[in-house]
């Protein structure tokens, strides 16, 4: 069984989380510059078996797509061409950034570390992945 990888796609940075081989535990992996995301994924997939890619789906409170969905759609098309054998699923990502920030506070991280937007993105990807696992 391969891993499931989750992406919190952003204009500048993308947070990445991954499961263990048994697809039970979601853990933050890293944050990468979005411009290099496909290259990072190619390298990661060459070394790890991945069954599914979960991409956060930003929605408004009324369930309509948020503005950032316009950035994600072209990336999803590129990804489908580069990795046609790996299914892509979407997971609602509403409030994940706020929950990630609260998680940082609750875990006792100081103000300096809470300013690390990359860490927020990585935690957000982990929350997206955990939500997907819970739903699955």
Automatic annotation (TrEMBL):
Pfam families (alphabetical): RuvX
Subcellular location: Cytoplasm
Protein known as: Putative pre-16S rRNA nuclease
Gene Ontology CC terms, in alphabetical order: cytosol
GO molecular function: hydrolase activity, acting on ester bonds; nuclease activity
Broad class of where this protein is predominantly found: cytoplasm
Gene3D superfamilies per UniProt: YqgF/RNase H-like domain
Family according to the record: Belongs to the YqgF HJR family.
UniProt-listed Enzyme Commission number(s): 3.1.-.-
Residue ranges occupied by any YqgF/RNase H-like domain in the UniProt entry: 2-100
């Amino acid at each position: 069984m391969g891993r499931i990888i989750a992406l919190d796609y952003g204009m500048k940075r993308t947070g990445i989380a991954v499961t263990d081989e048994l697809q039970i535990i979601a853990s933050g992996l890293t944050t990468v510059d979005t411009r290099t995301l496909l290259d990072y994924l190619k390298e990661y997939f060459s070394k790890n078996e991945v069954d599914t890619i979960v991409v956060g789906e930003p929605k408004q409170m009324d369930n309509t797509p948020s503005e950032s969905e316009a950035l994600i759609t072209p990336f999803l098309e590129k990804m489908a061409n580069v990795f046609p054998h790996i299914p892509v699923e979407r997971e609602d990502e509403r409030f994940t950034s706020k929950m990630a920030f609260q998680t940082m506070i609750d875990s006792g991280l100081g103000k300096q570390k809470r300013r690390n937007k990359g860490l927020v993105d990585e935690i957000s990807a982990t929350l997206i992945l955990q939500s997907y696992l819970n739903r699955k």
